[in-house]
# Entry
Amino acid sequence: MTKVSAALQTQWQRRVAAAGACALIGVLVATAGPRLPALLSAAGLAGGILGASLLLAWGTAAAQADVSGRLVILFVALVAALPELTVEVQLAITRQAQFVTANLTGATRLCSRSQPSGNFSSSPAEG
# Structure
């Protein structure tokens, strides 16, 4: 019985290590930037996104055993929204306000409770 459990344990460890390696490859490809050919860059980023999403899904499933399900979902939603919010903050800091509203997606519109009609005025009195 211990050999079976040890084999299963190493199997999941291999899967997590492979997903982590894919995510690391994605990070390395992203930092390499335009020095890589487009096809290799796209394949590396796709592998990185796949590995990172697997790690996030497995981490979420593992965390739900110890932590409240709502808290885990809140954390996952925060992790999912952070890249987009980072872009919006960068555009706001560089004072490119016209691109901030263009960058908003449906999920961000729902989170910020903007009007679905596309009216993104800076103050409520203008809308």
Q: What stands out?
A: The CA atoms of residues 91 and 97 lie 7 Å apart. Helices lie at 2-32, 38-63, 69-93, 97-103, 106-112. The chain has two domains: 1-66, 68-127.
